[in-house]
């Protein structure tokens, strides 16, 4: 490929196979991270969130000076059924857990 007559190389990324995929609105994920980052204030240490996924639900967990907090969502069912919102979709081959650093 060329841009303005200058050849550029486009990197190729190998196909990845994931053990679990969670589909949720990005605004919902952002709210979860904000809530957990306030609980997870660990002073001089970073805020860490553990996300665990199984076939029925996704759990978000953190701990800090203020205590511990867990937020979970069940696949396909809105947590607040009175609201019109997209369901959480989980595709899973194997139960997985991921640790994220939410420090800014």
UniProtKB/TrEMBL annotation:
Residues 14-101 form the Proliferating cell nuclear antigen PCNA C-terminal domain. It comes from Sorghum bicolor. This is Proliferating cell nuclear antigen PCNA C-terminal domain-containing protein. Signal peptide: none annotated. GO terms for molecular function: DNA binding; DNA polymerase processivity factor activity. GO terms for biological process: regulation of DNA replication. It holds the Pfam family PCNA_C. InterPro entries: DNA_clamp_sf, Pr_cel_nuc_antig, Pr_cel_nuc_antig_C.
